């Protein structure tokens, strides 16, 4: 099967459907994208706190692509299988003035540089105090072009078509489902993270360059995919989950959407009545805040354990 690639310089700063694709692939083929860190190279291993004062915000969160997938049409779903994510050997976390959930309480710039020990799979937060962070790399940005006419869908925000969804569960082995709004889907990725907590970076993740390899497949059988959905296995309990999301500037609206879309999924895939699906969401689903810092939108997920569908014992 063909493996396609996109270079690091083939990146953009908006989900604009008018941008020409850097590659055209057939459904089911694989693409590898080489992506800079979220600062687009403005931060490097020699940077200091003072570097943060000169960041050009309009250059942050670039995404590489787009990749045109043959056969994708509006109303379809693009299935994204995450095959590999290779980070750099370094990363950074920062308190950037004016950015973050508690930006008003932390106005002073502060930069933390990390050494990523990929062989042992962790990075030291503070070696003297014995605090280390397991590395679970993933792409913070994965999305397709929006069907809206406006070209101003900037990359730092999440949308119903994906984007800066910053969801830590989209590691290698996970599958993301995105609603297609334009011909060819036009897929981008970027914003490599070596590790991040659930909730999408109170200030920033361990930001790092990455090379991500993904298989892109057009699905014609998922009309209920209206926001990013994904399937993943959690490392803490080895449980497989299916997750629906709600994306909105209002947290309650996003939460209601996540539940509503899970009901749609349960009815379509498991043959439940809507009232049954709603009750199942209440007794078995886990609501999580996946992304809370990249305005104007929040991403809320409802995660459903798949072991409950194992049949009679």
UniProtKB/TrEMBL annotation:
Pfam families: FmdA_AmdA
Cited InterPro entries: FmdA_AmdA (IPR004304)
Record Gene3D superfamilies: Acetamidase/Formamidase-like domains (3.10.28.20)
GO molecular function per UniProt: hydrolase activity, acting on carbon-nitrogen (but not peptide) bonds, in linear amides
Domain of life from the UniProt record: Eukaryota
Protein name, as recorded: Formamidase
Highest classification ranks of the organism: Eukaryota, Fungi, Dikarya, Basidiomycota, Agaricomycotina
């Amino acid at each position: 099967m063909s493996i396609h690639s996109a270079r690091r310089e083939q990146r953009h700063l908006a989900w604009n459907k008018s941008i020409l694709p850097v590659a055209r692939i057939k459904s089911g083929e694989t693409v590898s994208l080489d992506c800079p860190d979220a600062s687009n190279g403005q931060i490097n291993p020699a940077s200091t706190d003072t570097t943060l004062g000169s960041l050009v915000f309009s250059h942050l969160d670039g995404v590489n692509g787009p990749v045109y997938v043959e056969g994708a049409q509006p109303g379809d779903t693009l299935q994204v299988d995450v095959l590999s994510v290779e980070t750099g050997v370094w990363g950074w976390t920062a308190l950037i003035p004016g950015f973050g959930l508690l930006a008003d309480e932390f106005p002073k710039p502060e930069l933390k540089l990390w050494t990523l020990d990929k062989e042992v799979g962790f990075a030291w937060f503070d070696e003297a105090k014995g605090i280390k962070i397991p590395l679970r790399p993933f792409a913070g940005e994965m999305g397709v072009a929006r069907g809206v006419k406006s070209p101003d869908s900037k990359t730092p925000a999440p949308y119903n078509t994906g984007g800066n969804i910053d969801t830590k569960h989209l590691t290698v082995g996970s599958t993301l489902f995105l609603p297609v709004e334009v011909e060819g889907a036009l897929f981008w990725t970027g914003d490599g993270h070596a590790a991040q907590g659930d909730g999408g970076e109170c200030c920033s993740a361990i930001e790092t360059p990455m090379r991500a390899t993904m298989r892109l497949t057009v699905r014609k059988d998922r009309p209920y995919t209206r926001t990013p959905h994904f399937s993943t296995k959690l490392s803490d309990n080895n449980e497989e989950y299916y997750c629906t999301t709600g994306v909105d500037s209002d947290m309650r609206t996003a939460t209601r959407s996540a539940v509503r879309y899970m009901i749609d999924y349960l009815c379509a895939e498991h043959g439940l009545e809507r009232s049954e699906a709603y009750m199942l969401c209440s007794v078995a689903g886990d609501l999580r805040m996946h992304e809370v810092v990249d305005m104007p939108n929040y991403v809320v997920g409802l995660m459903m354990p798949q072991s409950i569908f194992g049949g009679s014992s």
